UniProtKB/TrEMBL annotation:
Source lineage: Eukaryota, Fungi, Fungi incertae sedis, Chytridiomycota, Chytridiomycota incertae sedis
Protein name: Uncharacterized protein
Species whose genome carries this gene: Rhizoclosmatium globosum
Source taxon at top rank: Eukaryota
């Protein structure tokens, strides 16, 4: 297997690890944004449910009031006038309070919808950064493969990256195994959320190679 010149590999390694370290918190940010989106979604559903419930209650109260104002002949005989008047007053009061609640409930829905759409747009930008982070980790793994996955004779030669350092080679192999493990156990796409194992990949790369 071919390997990279030490100067080029060192430069690429520094560049990739710097980029990864600058983005290593992005998966946590994505998780927080997802939680905020879910909370807002639940709030929106509750607001719509409240508005719908009030509408149904107003519709029923209106029908009951119309019926109370226009009693049948039999009802007018059986139900005292005072009782009917009390019923009408109660229904009018109920309807008035429901109508007072309706406007704020209806006005809340579009406000929350707008906030929900804004959060979804923000998530798209964050998700792109998560994808970039995953691509950077893949590039780092490829670099380690090219730089260190060589036979013993090549590794012991003067031309290899960090040549003659068998202890470092062992540590680099550990890095490669952990990256592979992170790829297997971590998130394979931004749709599946973020993984703590993958998030820590850049950290153990730096720790092992320092």
């Amino acid at each position: 297997m071919s390997f990279l010149p030490a100067s080029h590999a060192s430069y690429e390694y520094a560049s990739l690890t710097n980029s990864i370290n600058s983005k290593h918190t992005i998966q946590g940010i994505l998780r927080a944004k997802d939680a905020e989106i879910e909370s807002t979604r639940q709030e929106l559903l509750a607001a719509k449910d409240t508005a719908s419930t009030i509408y149904s209650q107003i519709k029923k109260a209106t029908a009951d009031l119309d019926k109370a104002n226009k009693p049948s002949f039999l009802e007018s005989l059986l139900v005292p006038t005072s009782t009917r008047q009390e019923t009408v007053s109660h229904l009018q009061s109920t309807l008035f309070h429901l109508q007072q609640r309706q406007d704020p409930a209806l006005e809340a829905v579009p406000v929350i919808e707008e906030q929900y759409k804004k959060l979804l747009d923000e998530r798209k930008d964050i998700a792109l950064q998560v994808i970039e982070l995953q691509e950077l980790r893949g590039q780092l793994k490829d670099l380690l493969d090219k730089a260190f996955t060589v036979d013993q004779s090549t590794f012991d030669s003067e031309d290899g990256v960090f040549a003659r350092d068998s202890e470092l080679k062992k540590r680099v192999n550990t890095v490669q195994l952990k990256i592979i493990d992170a790829e297997k156990n971590g998130i394979r796409s931004e749709k599946q959320g973020a993984s703590g194992t993958r998030q820590s990949t850049c950290r153990f790369c730096v720790d092992v190679l320092e």
